[in-house]
Amino acid sequence: MSCEALFFTAPWCNPCRQAAPIFSEVMREANLPSTIVDVDLTPDLADRFGVERLPTLVIVSDGVLRGSLTGSRPKAEVRSFVDSALGEVDPPVLPTVAD
């Protein structure tokens, strides 16, 4: 399963500038591939994921939207959102049988 985070932003968006370092840090800690998406350059992608406000963080798994979070948020809240979205796509851990 392929998961990725998309961070929808724009150069003129002050809350986006505040949220960008938190987004980058959480993605690095979660070891989650991520892309920063400038909505002015790719409005069709923003439309595809229903982005109406900035900044918006979207978690996608195999092309399917797993969750989105809008606004500049504290790191703990962003991390909790990411963990929750990733938990929905991770396969269950099956017990192993000892030889």
Task: Give a short summary of the structure.
The protein is of the alpha+beta class. The protein contains three helices and four strands. The two termini are 29 Å apart.
Question: Would you write up a description of this structure?
Answer:
Belongs to the thioredoxin family. Residues 1-87 form the Thioredoxin domain. This protein has 99 residues and is an alpha+beta fold. It is built from 3 helices and 4 strands. It has helices at 14-30, 43-48, 75-89, and strands spanning 3-9, 34-38, 56-61, 64-70. Helix 1 (14-30) links the parallel strand 1 and strand 2. The longest helix has 17 residues, at 14-30.
Annotation field: number of helices = 3
> What is the subunit organization of this protein?
single chain
User: Helices and strands, in N-to-C order?
Assistant: EHEHEEH
Structural class: alpha+beta
Radius of gyration: 15 Å
Principal-axis shape: globular
Any low-confidence stretches, pLDDT <50, length ≥5?
A: 90-96
Q: How many strands?
A: 4
User: Main beta sheet, described?
Assistant: 4 strands, mixed
What is the percent of helical residues?
A: 25-40%
Strand percent estimate: 25-35%
End-to-end separation: 29 Å
Report mean pLDDT, rounded to a whole number: 89
Spatially, the strands of the biggest sheet line up as 2-1-3-4
